Amino acid sequence: MGSPADFALWIVSVLLEAFACGLIVLRGRLRRYRMLAYYFAGCAVFDSVPWKTLFHYGLNSVWYIYFYYYADCLLKLLLYLVVVEHCGRVADLKTAWKYVRVGSFVLATCVGIFCSLVVARSSGGFMTHLVVEYSQSLSLVTTALGLIVCVPSLWKRGVLLHDCLLAFILASYLFLVVWQDLLRNLYPKYISVVSYSGTLLWMMLPLGVAYIFSDPATGNDGPYIYL
Description:
This protein has helices at residues 4-26, 34-57, 62-91, 94-120, 126-155, 161-186, 191-214, 216-219. It is globular, with a radius of gyration of 18 Å. It contains eight helices and no strands. The longest helix has 30 residues, at 62-91. It has a single domain (4-219), classed as Rhopdopsin 7-helix transmembrane proteins (Up-down Bundle).
């Protein structure tokens, strides 16, 4: 059973996710930022269901563990597609966008094949280990891709201001998540502190996206940034 602080952070997190998704829809940006809206909608849904499962079965129950890992893998895949979607906006060409889609599919498939080969050598449940391994590997690929895409987003002339800000927010969030995982492995004694900092770090992403789509200056298609 979670503490009152955990419950409060959960409520705020779900509200922020729903708010960010709602702003994308209300601003009429669903077509251009479809995967971003789907990602926050998925986060809001999957963050709500585990607490109900936790209250009924407990933190160490098989149901909660299975749901957590499978939902986490699906959200990591959606976040990967968010970064891929941003690659298509930076490319801004139909032919280039086709290459981005094909390349992203091939990359995700290669990661899955690699994880399958790694998990096949281990004992235990194949699917569960595959889901965990794929989620971790895809997260690293997403971080690398987000950092790479951030550079042309800031330097390419003609990229919209809110696309530049979104690229910076995504790259910062992905980098800090990897850094947090490193701290968790280096300092296991302070895992509770790192977990709380991870929740606060996650809130930065929907807050940043909400700012981009709520501020009239960044919500307009006119402004550009040139470096």
